[in-house]
Structure formats: C-alpha cells, structure tokens
Amino acid sequence: MRKLVIARRASQAFFLCLFIYILWSTTYPLKGLFPTKTFFHTNPLIMIFTSVSERLLLAGLIFALVMLVLTLVVGRFYCGWICPLGTMIDWTGALRKKKPHPGDRVNRWIRKGKFLTLAVIAGFSLAGIQAAWILDPMVITARFVSLFLIPTITLLLNKVFVILIRDLGFYGRVQDVYHGLRSSLLGIEPHYFSSSPVIFLFFLLVISSALFISRLWCRAVCPLGGLYAVVSRFSFMSRVVGDCVGCHTCVPLCRTGAIMDGRSYAKGECILCMDCVYACPPGVTKFALPAVGRRADKGTLSRAEKENGVSRKNFIFLMLGSFLAMGFNWPERDRATGAVIRPPGSLKEDEFLSRCIRCGNCMKVCPTNGLQPTVLQTGLEGIWTPHLVPEIGYCEYKCTLCGEVCPTGAIPQIDLWKKKRTKLGTAKVDRSLCVAWSKNWHCVVCEEHCPVYDKAIRVKEELVDGVIIKKPYVLPDLCVGCGICQAKCPVRPVRAIKVSPEGADRT
After folding, report:
1. Which one of 159, 260, 467, 472 has the largest count of C-beta atoms within 10 Å of its C-beta?
2. Predicted model pTM
C-alpha cells in the first residue's frame, strides 16, 4: 500500500477543494466558512515581501512565519501537499505518460530560475515596489478560480438546467435539484470580467508546462517555491537511503528533479511527494529525523547541495544583483485623483498599487459585478487591479465585503457607517445628453436611485410649454460616487450622468 502517496493525494485534493469552496462560498452577505484572506495570510511570499515593500507589519504575518517554521521542521511540504496550483500541475502532468528526465546538468540551470525570480522580487520590495503577486501560485490560482472558473461553471450549469426544464420539459426531480442548487452551488449570480480570457490563458500556460517536464513551473519559475526551497535546505527532516543498489529507478520519477543518483539529492528541491519511497526496489529509502539521517548517510546531503541548485553564496549574489533596481530613478507619480474609480476607502494610489496582489477576491464578491480588473487604464503597473465600472455595476451602498476579503489591506476593512460616508468619486450630469435637460422629457431615474439619505441628486423644476419638467443635478458634497445613478441611467450608448474619481477618500 502506497499509504504516504495516497495521503499526499488526499491532502492535495482536500486543500484544493477547500480553496475553491472558500472562494465560491464567500458572497454577499458574507457567509463563508472562514475569511478568504486567511488562506493568503499563510503565504510567506505575499505577506513578507508586501510588508517589506510597505515598511509595515501586515495583519496575518504570523501565519506566514508559522509556515516557514513548519518548513524548517519537515521540509518543502507545502508545494507537494497543499499548494492548489501544484495540485493542478500534477494532475495536468499525469496526462503525459512518459515523463522526460532533463538530466542533472539541465536541472541545475532550470532550478536557478526561481531563485533569480525570488531575488528580483526581494530587490523590488526593498525598493518599495511589491512585485510578488505577478508569479505567486496562490494569487494565480485564486484569480483563475474567482474570475474565470466560478463564473463559467455557474453560467453553464444554469444554462443546462434551463434547457432541461424549459425546453425539454424535464420537471419534477430535475426542477427540485435545480432549486436546491440555486440555494447553494448556483446561488452566485454569474458575473462577467473583461480580462477572463487572458487570465485563463495565463493559467493554462502555467499548468500545461508540466506536459513537457514534470513540475517545470515549480522547478524553474515559482518564487514561493524558491522561498520554501531556501528554508527547507536547513530542515530537520531528510531523505535517508540505506544499502542503495544503484538502480537509479527513483531518479526519473522525481517530480522536481531533486534526486541526482540513488543516494544524493537536492534537499531544497524535494517536495516530499514520497514517490521515491515506494519506487525503491530494495525498499531502503525513507524520510527520517536528522540523527537517523546522519547515521545512514554521512555527508551525502551537504555534498549534493554544493553540487546542485543555488548555493547560499550564489543566492546572496542574486539578491544583491537585484538591488540594482533601487538605483533607478523611479518617477514620482501624481495620482491625487487617479484615472479610475477604486473600491471604497482604498489606499492612496501609489500605496494601493504596491499593496494590491491582484488576487481577484474583491471582484469576485462584489454583488453587482461593478468591480472589474483594469487592463491598461492605469498603465502596466496597475494591470488586474480592481476598479469600479458603473456601466456594469455600482457599489452597493450597504456592502463592505471587498474590504473584508482583501488579504493585504489595500482595501481597508471599514464598518458600514463609515462606508456609507466614504467617497469613491463624484457624479456629474452631462446636460447635453440628459433627456430632461436637452429634450425636456420626464426622467428622474438617477434621483430616484440615489441611496444617500439626504439625496445627493436633486431636481430643479422648470416650466416648459406649460408643463413642469424636473431636471436633475448633483450636490458634490453629498455624493459618494457609488455609481448607481450611472448604472441605472436609461440614456444609451453613453450615459448622461457619469462618476469620476474626483474627490475620492483615499486613506
């Protein structure tokens, strides 16, 4: 019985399902098992380098440090037993029957890539620029699940049930099942996100790399894997080989190319998949505590570490080289008002861009679908950050969920009373487009929908050809820029009332 392998696969499936469940069930109003951001708080790459770039200690940093301590004890277990992206990479790699083994020389060069990536991220963080989100596996997976997988599955299942019930006449039990799912799995309104195809293609590129070399992404690119690899080199748990017969059966089976020959291995590259334990013909391979490991295999591990991977000296050199980024004269950006409407209470633009990890949590939970990922509206540095698009949806007046699910505080968590008084921007009526002003038609839709208690949109009555026409105008001091007026405005294709980020409250 391959008990450890079965346990690993069960752990991978469990944590992937838990990850998807948490993202799926976190909706308005909040009713998830536990906050989505808890998963991200256990991510040392995001928490540590965001803290460094922002020069502060983020809430939840302690959970990330706990993960590093556990890695120091047992090794790089996260990559092999928990990581949701690693799980999907393994499943994709299983589609390829023959796993090519690139060889030790190629492996040595391949694995340096993730350390270089990690070093560059560290250098940028010291320069005050948070770049960990770009290649972080948890962020990549969360963005794919929240902005592509969940909307796609929800939409397709809804369509299937509608066809079965309405078009094909399958009522009774099918309809009962549909109503049951509507209160759980299908209770989420299908949302549209403009960058979904790009997000899907990027995710597909990552996991399909396993079709060429097993765990190629984890070997060569993943910066979180690089961080865990550095720490796990000093872990207490080690691979121990007894009387090796030199069959080399375990070498091509190693998912990350950690094993060089039957006895030696790159400790930092081992993800504890346990395949080598059961593949060993004489059954002399095991993982044990350091005292046992030293008796069975004196000095082999240290020799392997020197010959393969990135040494401590090389890693420090890479980090120092990445600090050259600090020498550039980064231009000061004037973003007092910004080019887009950010979520309520968001940090000031420069700090927001540095703190936001583009995980998609806020956009997924937005009940109106108003929060959308930017493309190039704020330049390359702002790609996939959230902004409000009133034509798609408005900021729900009684919702604070985006701040509750943000793992880094880029969108601060604020209470409802404060949120109702927090300005996202200011609305303005374009009188050349407004039918009440330009055509003297009866239309006060924007005034009727304004949720502000004192009404930030009011009407001015004018007598036109013996008929009293109510014409709307905005009181900027009362307007919170929620965008519902723009969302509900009947004028097409261009709305007659628009919200700009002018006057937004940015903390």
Report:
1. 472
2. 0.84
